[in-house]
Amino acid sequence: MCLAIPGQLLEFVDEANRLARVDVAGVVRNVNVGLLDVDGESARAGDWVLIHVGFALSKVDEEEAMATLRMLQGMGADYEAELEELKASVIE
User: Fold this and answer.
1) What is the pLDDT along the chain (92 residues), one digit of tens a residue?
2) Which residues pair with 41 in a beta bridge?
3) Residue 92: what pLDDT?
4) Half-sphere exposure for 89 (CA within 13 Å, toward CB)
5) Is 76 left (phi over 0), alpha (psi -120 to 50) or beta?
6) Which overall architecture, per CATH, does domain 5-80 show?
7) CB 10: neighbour CB atoms within 10 A?
């Protein structure tokens, strides 16, 4: 199963390549945030984003991020499997 999981952008690790460190339910990984660069707007530290296969797809507010995390946690094994896949992934 492939889910878009909310995470909070912590910092940029490679500004030129649009790579940022993001905390997803305690799992910290680098993700590409370049898809969020639209109309002069981009992601910033502290923003909540939806992440799928190493890319931030959209920004969400904290309330939506928390509600989505609660819903995903309710999925049990599927959510845990997605987190395990995230832990195993590496973008440098």
Assistant:
1) 466 889 999 999 999 999 999 998 888 999 999 999 988 889 999 999 999 888 999 999 999 999 988 888 888 887 777 777 777 776 66
2) 38
3) 65
4) 21
5) left
6) Roll (2.30)
7) 14
Burial (0-12, 13-18, 19+ Cβ within 10 Å), 63? exposed
Burial degree of 86 (CB within 10 A; 0-12, 13-18, 19+): buried
Read off the tokens for 46.
């502290």
Enumerate helices (H) and strands (E) in the chain, giving the number of each.
Answer: 2, 5
pTM of the model: 0.81
Can you give the pLDDT at residue 1? Answer: 46
Token pair of 27 as six digits: 């799992």
Domain ranges of the chain: 5-80
How far, in Å, CA of 22 to CA of 91, rounded? 11
